[in-house]
Amino acid sequence: MKLEQDPKVKTLQVPARRTRCTGWQPRRPALAWAACAVLVTLAAQGSTAAAQTAFPAKPIRMIVPFPAGGGYDFLGRVLAARMTETWGQPVLVENRAGANGNIGSEVAAKAAPDGYTLLMGGIGPQALSVGLYPQLPYDPLKAFEPISLVAAQPNLLVVHPSMPVKSLKEFIAFAKARPGQISYASNGSGSGQHIAAEQLKLMTGIDIVHVPFKGAAPALVAILSGEVAVAFNVILSPLPYVKTGRLRALATASSRRASLAPDVPTMTELGFPIDIDTWYALYAPAGTPKDIVARLATEAMRIANLPDVREKAGSQGIEMIGAGPEKLAAHNRAEIARWTKVIQQAKITID
To answer: Which residue, 27, 105, 225, 232, has most beta carbons within 10 Å?
Structure first.
């Protein structure tokens, strides 16, 4: 059926090149302007929604500021693989090691704040470095948008079996009788393991000599060979040798007993409240849009709570946490304040 137009009804003609609600005077201007405002609002909302839906529209770079093989690298690759599956865009891990994680963290801090550069950071570069490096090239609290507190891993205090001690109390008494004669290994100057040992020295008055190594693996080799007598190390490194008798565990430097070593007491239980879990967290450069940060946080927390991820991490001595941006920000502030005080008290410096 053909519809006939009533000749009495005049069609309103708007110039084709007009892009604003101007150029004509309707009989009911208030209604016209209101309609125009609604259209503009809907267009803006549609544009924002499209931008949110579009992320990520290209590959994402995840910087790991430590070498391959450690906890930072392990967790970075777990998150990257699962994010790739979810979004259909590659999330590529880039190891940028050096200066206790500061080099890779600086690279991430200076990247474009668009969500396409992430940092798998943690206790070293985002907390300990504040007290260790007077000229730190980034501010951990201002240079990054916190995304998620991903996981934590306890540190284990072990001794070589040639040491005639079977408890922390016996070790302290043995060390006090031999000032300057016992050496300890760390994963590097300024590492969490170095600071844990120096805190133990402060609390007990013992005098043991620091021997830094470049990572957990060489530090472990040193204590297995008897080159050093004692060491703190992330639990997974020494634990297999504790089970075979090649090392002896004295305590965990954590607020709670480790699931992989439930029979080993904590330092706190033994009267020395040293709680220095190696924690890992995801960040983006400061200024990254809030909607992108929220999307990244939701995905990181989802991954942290997947049963198979928790099981795989648990086998590495890593406890998945999966806390959001606000909890990470508060945790970061507290860790900086706590460990900067210990570093200053122990007069720890980086050579």
So the answer is: 232
